[in-house]
Amino acid sequence: AFCSSTGGWLPLLCTMNCTVASEQFRGLLGLSLDEYNAAAAAAPIGSEGVVVLPFFNGERIPNLPNGRASLNGLSAANFKAGNIARASMEAAIFGMRIGLEAFRKLGFKARELRIIGGGAKSPLWRSIAANVLGLPVRAPAGDEAAAMGAAIQALWCLNKAAGRPSAIQELCAEHVALEGRAQAEPDAASVKAYEAAYADYGRYLAALGPLYS
Prior knowledge:
Layout: E1 2-3, E2 9-10, H1 20-29, H2 33-42, E3 51-53, E4 70-72, H3 81-105, E5 113-114, H4 123-133, E6 137-140, H5 145-161, H6 168-175, E7 178-184, H7 188-208
Parallel strand pairs: 5-6
Antiparallel strand pairs: 1-2, 3-4, 6-7
């Protein structure tokens, strides 16, 4: 966790890979970003049983610092570029779900997911996140969300020093705008399909994770 300027704490979970797997496979397949996204979008939820464990750099979520990446569940029928592409994207969000579940065990409640970075611009990334995590997804307007967060923390300190204390929630509401088109809602059928895909991911993780302990 990071110390907040308000005197509290900013809880933090870090992934070591996120889009690393998708970029590695995209390079291997020789596809442009648009081609890769199109191939992934054409594949079904769960990638026909193809499962990526995306631990190219080890991993923190789950805690596998010596972990290695693997491509699992392959058959002659499902060995397709689109399935590999989609599985790499699904794996990144499955890792985020592991982190979200850890937060929930600590008593945190999530109502909405704010997504930033390159993936925020992708309708497919937003859809996968909404349905794997079961939360509405929103993207802030602008490209420097981390800098905006730091500026809001600084403004809170400035207002307090000037004798005009304000709630951090009020400052966020005043200064953070959302990109109206960059959003996604969970869909009941897709959420159910992703539950099965996440269970498959969990089985491969349970089987292979101990190899890197």
